[in-house]
Amino acid sequence: MLRTMINAAVSMNEVQKQLDIISNNIANSETTGYRAKNTRFSELIRQQFNQVDEKNEQVANSRLTPAGLRLGTGTMVNASINSLQGSIKETGRDLDVAFGAPSQYLQVNAGGNIRYTRDGSLYLQPGNNRNQVQLVTSEGYPILDENGNAIVLNANFRDISIDKNGRLTAISRDNQPNQQVNLGVVQVNNSSALVSEGDNLFSVDGTYQGALTALNGANREAIQLQQGALETSNVDMSKELTDLMTTQRSYQMNSRTITMGDQMLGLINTIR
């Protein structure tokens, strides 16, 4: 009975983590470029008890499971990033960009660390002097170019265009030369290597070899960017709400298991 209660308590803790992930997905259903997280449960270590032979030979021969009794110690939830492409919504804004390939990300500088995002809602903020502007994300993180440098432009321009291969052109005023820079874009070869860092940013787990490919030089032909559009989140609300109800039922069931176990132990103590 104690083992059952312990298993239920362990499972409740993991189910609560799943509830938190589902709630976060629902809360970010309208966040630009958000990547939903999927969850799956795996069994923790289990203990094997070898039983004596069945007295009834017919029953023993009809057994479909391995001999013995296996008692688990609970479950563990594992989260993975959903790498499916979100819908593209046209905005007509020059500094909005959307990726047409599900595995491509912009490079940004977050506190001195390189991070990756699919949030293509870009902005210009004042640079080091009033004659310069810097390209940043909606959260204020600097966008990096293909060489890992922050993108700073002279403010003397009248228009900005971004082509499908990620080349940004600031069209200057007064017949001055146009400013051009290549946005820093990477391709994620293994979505399991991505680690969520908050603010719609990701880092890469260094234990995964070849998880990233920098799309520079000839590789820039593989970039698929659309100006004047944004990618919506890939959260499937119907799935999330269904999972939410199922998870709540699972939490209630484990809670009920602990309650019933406690009642039975109390009954045993009264018999003594």
How would you explain this protein's 3D organization?
There is one protein chain. The chain is α+β, with helices and mostly antiparallel strands and 272 residues long. It folds into 2 domains: 2-52 and 70-81 and 236-271, no CATH class; 88-231, no CATH class. Helices cover 24% and strands 33% of the residues. It is built from 3 helices and 20 strands. The protein has helices at residues 2-27, 57-61, 237-271; strands at 37-43, 46-49, 69-72, 75-81, 88-90, 97-99, 104-110, 113-117, 123-126, 132-136, 152-154, 157-162, 167-172, 179-182, 185-188, 194-198, 201-204, 212-214, 225-227, 229-231. The strands form 8 sheets. A 4-stranded antiparallel beta sheet has the order 8-7-15-18, with no helix packed on it. A 3-stranded antiparallel beta sheet has the order 9-10-11, with no helix packed on it. It has a 3-stranded antiparallel beta sheet with strand order 12-13-14, with no helix packed on it. Strand 7 and strand 8 (113-117) form a beta hairpin.
